[in-house]
Amino acid sequence: MEKSFITDLKKYLISPKKIVILPHRNADGDALGSTLAWYHFLSQKGHEAVVISPNEYPSFLKWLPGENKILKYTQNPSEVQEKIRHADMIFTLDFNALDRIQELTDIVSKAPGHKIMIDHHEAPEDYAVLRYSDTSMSSTCEMIYNVIKALDETAINKEIASCLYTGIMTDTGSFRYSATTSETHQAISHLIQAGADGTEIHQKIYDSASFNRLKLLGITLSNLQQFPDLPIVFMTLNQEELISCDYQKGDTEGFVNYGLSLEGIVFSCILIENKNEGKIKMSFRSKGTFSVNDFARTYFNGGGHHNAAGGMSMDSMEDTVARFKNAVKEVADQFQ
Length: 336
Ligand code: 5GP
Ligand code: MN
What we know:
It is built from 13 helices and 12 strands. The chain has helices spanning 3-12, 29-44, 77-86, 105-110, 140-152, 158-171, 182-193, 198-206, 211-222, 239-244, 257-260, 292-300, 317-331, and strands at residues 18-22, 48-53, 71-72, 89-93, 114-119, 130-133, 225-226, 232-237, 267-274, 279-286, 303-304, 308-313. Helix 2 runs antiparallel to helix 6 and helix 5 runs antiparallel to helix 6. The radius of gyration is 20 Å and the shape is globular.
């Protein structure tokens, strides 16, 4: 983190401000953990802060301290618009492109408040007056940890620690992906000292599955397909299959990773149909040198990180699978 970021941030926060904090659409553990931790910190310091989520998020995140205070645009559109229009500052956490907040893109880009980005995705846009953008960081939560530590580390209480622990844990696959460093573990050590209960948090996030979610995983795995002669697999889930297991938001989280648990496989994809929104949501994961960020950007209007990215298609499942297979052919030489 550049020193000037903290110096400049301090200037903005010197007097009490009206502050909006935004996670990306379909928030995950890192997006909600970082926005809520930052909300707790700013509230402690006397600012009028609010977390605004573009839409609903999975129920396994609904125990996070402060989650019940989050405003959802889909539930409270007029209140949310007012808050954004009147904010002195707007923090965008865990995303760096305004189209990641979809419903709110227009409102936020027109809002007069100073925009500040804290994020670890590739290719940041240029909308922020101040930004801390670092693609080598494990998670936005680790970045918020660094920011709070630089501002006032005594502020890290059990609530903040639990939020930050959650996002670092979910974005690192429980501390095993390559962006996990000794600094990540030092941050975790401090968060545990400050009151985060790792065992309890793991259970709340990973051991809260419904019977139907596990049935859906069974269907997904039975749909697994491998490319002949390539270390690549993909899975599909169509609307009928989702309905048959009473699909709830968040149920498919982590399914794509099962592809990478196969020996020798270095690229896994899942395609999930959403007939209401008329699109196929795609998730990509890789190991090693193959960049799913480039792949998602080039072929499926998406992006993310080197080894974890997402994208979408407006075509039917059949056509999207065909397009995916063609795209794989085009990049096949990278796997030789
Ligand atoms: P997931 O596959 O879990 O939805 O997302 C994997 C990573 O890619 C996350 O860091 C997420 O923020 C990012 N991501 C997912 N979908 C998109 C997308 O449509 N556009 C961009 N730019 N990033 C995405
Ligand atoms: Mn993240």
